[in-house]
Amino acid sequence: MSEILLTDFEKKVLQELEKVPLGRVTTYQNLANKVGKPKAARAVGNALNKNPWAPRVPCHRVVKSDGGIGGYVFGVEKKIALLKKEGVAVRDERVINFEKIVF
DNA sequence: CTATTGACGACAT
DNA sequence: CATGTCGCCAATA
Predict the structure, then answer these.
(1) A51 is catalytic
(2) What tens digit of pLDDT does each residue of A72-94 get?
(3) Which residues put CB within 7 Å of chain B, the nucleic strand?
């Protein structure tokens, strides 16, 4: 049963997130900007939290604009582990490879 | 419609 | 650099 229980805003966010290639990370602010609402970074985070396709969409590649790890439905620790595995350097819940961020 | 909440951001201290 | 305060937006009760 596949029905859309998501709003346009959430759909846009998830669609943009799907475009993020492996080994790279994006920011909530950047996603918000892509959906046409550069000030809705907070709402973007909420959208990911409701994300029904957690593993399908790379929600673990989203970090805060200042390099913070942010959050993760399965636990921040899990998110960090995944990022490191994909080639993103992280240290104390903080992304180091800022160059790896997709703008 | 109003109030509350939340994976955020920028700025002040 | 860490913490606190305000602002901004969308979803939900």
Answers:
(1) no
(2) 999 999 999 999 999 999 999 99
(3) A 27-29, 41-46, 48-49, 51, 54, 59-60, 62, 64-66, 68, 70-73
Regarding pTM above 0.85, the answer is yes
Q: Residue written as tokens 């994300």?
A: A51
Structure-token pair, residue A3:
């029905």
Helix (H, G, I), strand (E, B), or coil: what is residue A51?
A: coil
* CB-CB contact of A61 with A18 (8 Å): no
A46 token code pair? 């909420």
Q: How far apart are CA A64 and CA A67, in angstroms?
A: 5
Neighbours of A62 (CB within 10 A): 24
Q: Which residue is nearest to nucleotide C9 (CA to C1')?
A: A40
